Amino acid sequence: xxxxxxxxxxxxxxxxxxxxxxxxxxxxxxxxxxxxxxxxxxxxxxxxxxxxxxxxxxxxxxxxxxxxxxxxxxxxxxxxxxxxxxxxxxxxxxxxxxxxxxxxxxxxxxxxxxxxxxxxxxxxxxxxxxxxxxxxxxxxxxxxxxxxxxxxxxxxxxxxxxxxxxxxxxxxxxxxxxxxxxxxx
Length: 185
What we know:
There is one protein chain. The protein is an alpha+beta fold. It has four helices and nine strands, in the order E-E-E-H-E-H-E-H-E-E-E-E-H. It has helices at residues 77-93, 106-116, 129-134, 172-182, and strands at 31-34, 39-41, 48-53, 96-102, 121-124, 138-141, 144-147, 150-155, 158-163. The strands form two sheets. Strands 2-1-5-4-3-8-9 form a seven-stranded mixed sheet, with helices on one face. Strand 3 (48-53), helix 1 and strand 4 (96-102) form a beta-alpha-beta unit. The radius of gyration is 15 Å and the shape is globular. The termini are far apart.
């Protein structure tokens, strides 16, 4: 059974300004491990890229961290990924390439791609190279440093839109699609 939080009962994350510096910045030239078994540098991709950053996905039969649902914006990674899966075709028609990014190891992410039937790559920033260079907001739980949920849209390697905070996470893909429609060339 898939973990599915009731967002109406979860604390809503506040905008702490953790992403105010990102608009107009360039994606860093960092090699990220992909669930397709290769290394990917997001800064080298020409065209439009959507990078949704999420704390962590839950694996079946593995409990979520204690207090997970009390952390504003933490819960809902699986539902966010599923929403991007469901809107992937529409976003591709608008010229966008979708990537999910977390600090989980690529092998862990591979299970998520297979279980959720994701048509796009998940990228691992387990060494925090991408996160640190962009100074992405993070939090810590059970001794693990995780990225706060946010979504970047880049065009030719330059960040042109930031969604932060993202809540509820299952609506993020629709918000991104709406932005692309409103900002079509």
